[in-house]
């Protein structure tokens, strides 16, 4: 079976400030992730892990270096092209869900498709709703859902467009231990059932052990664990 590289960074740097006040939040990072891998990036607060994820996700631009997602150089894209690429190829799950409060669970999930001006695949929608065990909550508003259910909706929204990358930023950081176990089970299910490539940021080494590979980041530099 051919191994396909889905993400590559080359000498990636993000520097804030100048001169003596310069902070190298991401310092010359070279990273490769294969399709279907589940990678955890661990580090203390301020280590650069969220900055790295925002660069990979196209949310922030690097000071220097390159980022290739599914063979595309995202740094070479203009803002409009990058916005479309992110919507179609990168799913992001945040710690605090980021759901639209006036939209139902299903409407939140469908948002990336609607913003793209196309219909969602109804079979995929139903499959995801059933896999994540929220089919019976599809018409509920976010404030009618538990934290764990809201995070499931957030994951479903990130998966709906079958993205090249699923990026998770402390996805269990706001949940109790039972909901944390459920979310980690769902992420592993997405990884195995959909061959979904996942990069998860966490400060919790125990959670990171569920991944195929653990990368530690410290002072903007990375090392394999």
Provide the descriptors you would attach to this structure in a database record.
single chain; 225 residues; alpha/beta; Rossmann fold; four-stranded antiparallel β-sheet; 10 strands
Summarize the structure in words.
The mean pLDDT is 89. Strand 9 (213-218) and strand 10 (221-224) form a beta hairpin. The protein is built from 7 helices and 10 strands. It is an alpha/beta fold. The protein has a single domain (5-224), classed as 3-Layer(aba) Sandwich (Rossmann fold), CATH 3.40.50.300. The two termini are 26 Å apart.
Question: Which helices and strands appear, and what pairs or packs with what?
Answer:
Layout: E1 5-16, E2 23-34, E3 38-42, H1 49-56, E4 64-69, E5 72-73, H2 79-89, E6 90-93, H3 105-115, H4 122-131, H5 147-159, E7 165-169, H6 177-193, E8 198-202, H7 205-208, E9 213-218, E10 221-224
Parallel strand pairs: 3-8, 3-9, 6-7, 7-8
Antiparallel strand pairs: 1-2, 1-4, 4-5, 9-10
